[in-house]
Design brief:
The chain has helices at 15-26, 51-60, 63-69, 107-120, 235-241, 243-253, 258-261, 305-322, 326-355, 361-373, 379-387, 394-398; strands at 7-11, 30-34, 47-49, 71-73, 75-80, 85-91, 102-105, 124-126, 131-137, 140-145, 156-159, 173-174, 177-185, 196-202, 206-214, 223-231, 271-273, 276-279, 284-285, 288-290, 296-297. By secondary structure, it is of the alpha+beta class. It has one domain: FAD/NAD(P)-binding domain, CATH 3.50.50.60. The strands form five sheets. Strands 6-5-14-15-16-13-17 form a seven-stranded mixed beta sheet. It has a six-stranded mixed beta sheet with strand order 8-2-1-11-20-19, with helices on one face. A hairpin with a 4-residue loop joins strand 5 and strand 6 (85-91). Helix 1 (15-26) packs parallel to helix 8 (305-322) and helix 8 packs antiparallel against helix 9.
Length: 413
């Protein structure tokens, strides 16, 4: 059954919003994107594109473009210090079917690919529009902006404004731990694995990680994202202690990071990110759907944020294409994603304290039991399926090929 052509407003010019705009425009919908910045730009550190997210990019025709500027990841690897015991060793080679991998990618790389494609598609982008609320009026949903203006009524508003979206009711809780992050030049001779996200832990309260992210736009050399776990209530004390004290802490935990730390000469090069664990009771309201972090958010321990947003956008496009009734389409979009979303929200709540908390018992169990067991079959495949975002098989519901290759019957282009 062919879908209808709708007037759609996308609130938010991030990864989920741009993907939704592109997918909906390609199906003939009339799309307008609203963005608070004068010049849209990415915000955030490097991220991992997992196989499900890559499959959506391939559907958009952007997979190869992003891959060329990213770093292929074949495993996630971590050691507890000072013992040096391996407590995380997840390999994509354990996945079935084979040939799958993650991509360490600078957020600017992914953003630019999506943004340039949005502009090329002729999608209208209204900048300097900070959305503050919305309401149903005149047979559609209207967006209100901070300057007191309002949009014309749209058939559908897609909320892609992130964790603190003003279009979503408050829910959930702020997590105790956040992360400091920065991007530095990748050094081939520093001894890091060029195909791995590597981490070092002291209990669960201290963690440093290094991830290759390829060569972002306008960069001349490959880069890496370096991140450091920190409690939010200790951030001011960290800042007051100064950069030198922090570098000493990092080097004490992982001496190999010294040449990366040498590139950080100002505390302003480090950005502090806070996280929240939240899931809206309903992703759908009248003529409104929340996607990505506006629907649910959590800690980045399982690295699924961008991939979830891409899958949400794909589900929305598929549902609008399949249903002539808008309400039925929105319910279908939420239903297509509901199981996968709930599964990973639960898993994230369970796993986050193991790697990021003040607990003494959990990291001890992790180091002495979980680490060794994770090297044995079938745990190797289970962990790879979990980390890759493929647990629950989210691609099957959306008709996406398991390895990211096209399925012509489901091609969105």
């Amino acid at each position: 059954m062919p879908g209808m052509s709708w007037r759609i407003a996308i609130a938010g010019c991030g990864i989920g919003g741009l993907a939704a705009a592109l997918l909906c425009r390609r199906d003939g919908h009339r799309v307008t994107v609203y963005e608070r910045f004068g010049v849209p730009r990415p915000v955030g550190a490097g991220l991992i594109l997992q196989p499900p997210g890559l499959a959506v990019l391939h559907e958009l025709g952007l997979g190869e473009q992003v891959r060329q500027r990213a770093a292929r990841l074949d495993r996630l690897f971590g050691k507890a210090m000072p013992s040096g015991r391996v407590v995380l060793d997840v390999r994509y080679s354990a996945l079935v079917p084979g040939g799958q991998f993650g991509l360490g990618v600078h957020r600017a790389t992914l953003f630019e690919a999506l943004y340039d494609a949005t502009v090329a598609a002729g999608i209208r982008i209204e900048t300097n529009h900070t959305v503050v609320s919305s309401h149903v009026s005149g047979g559609g949903r209207v967006l209100a902006f901070d300057a007191g203006e309002a949009s014309a009524p749209f058939d559908l508003v897609v909320d892609a404004l992130g964790t603190r979206s003003p279009l979503a009711p408050p829910c959930g809780r702020e997590l105790d731990y956040g992360a400091l992050w920065t991007n530095v030049e990748w050094l081939e001779d520093a001894g890091f694995d060029a195909a791995a996200l590597e981490q070092r832990y002291r209990a669960a309260s201290v963690m440093v990680g290094v991830m290759p992210v390829g060569t972002p736009p306008r960069a001349t050399a490959p880069q890496a994202t370096l991140f450091w776990s920190i409690r939010a209530d200790r951030f001011d004390a960290w800042r007051a202690a100064g950069l030198a004290a922090w570098k000493t802490d990092v080097e004490r935990l992982w001496p190999q990071t010294a040449p990366l730390l040498a590139q950080i000469t100002s505390i302003e090069q480090l950005t502090f990110a806070r996280y929240a664990h939240r899931t809206l009771p309903r992703a759908v309201e009248e003529r409104l759907i929340h996607i990505g972090d506006a629907w649910r958010s959590t800690s980045p321990q399982l690295g699924q944020g961008a991939n979830m947003a891409l899958l949400d956008a794909c589900a929305l496009a598929l549902a609008l294409r399949s249903q002539r009734d808008l309400t039925a389409a929105l319910d279908m979009a939420a239903a297509l994603r509901r199981f996968h979303v709930r599964l990973y929200q639960v898993l994230s709540a369970l796993f986050t304290p193991v790697y990021q908390s003040d607990s003494r018992v959990l990291p001890m169990l992790r180091d002495r039991l979980v680490g060794p067991l994770s090297k044995l079959w079938p745990a190797t495949r289970i962990l790879a399926t979990l980390v890759s975002g493929r647990l629950g098989d989210p691609q099957r519901a959306l008709g996406l090929a398991a390895t990211g290759r096209y399925r012509s019957a489901r091609s969105i282009s």
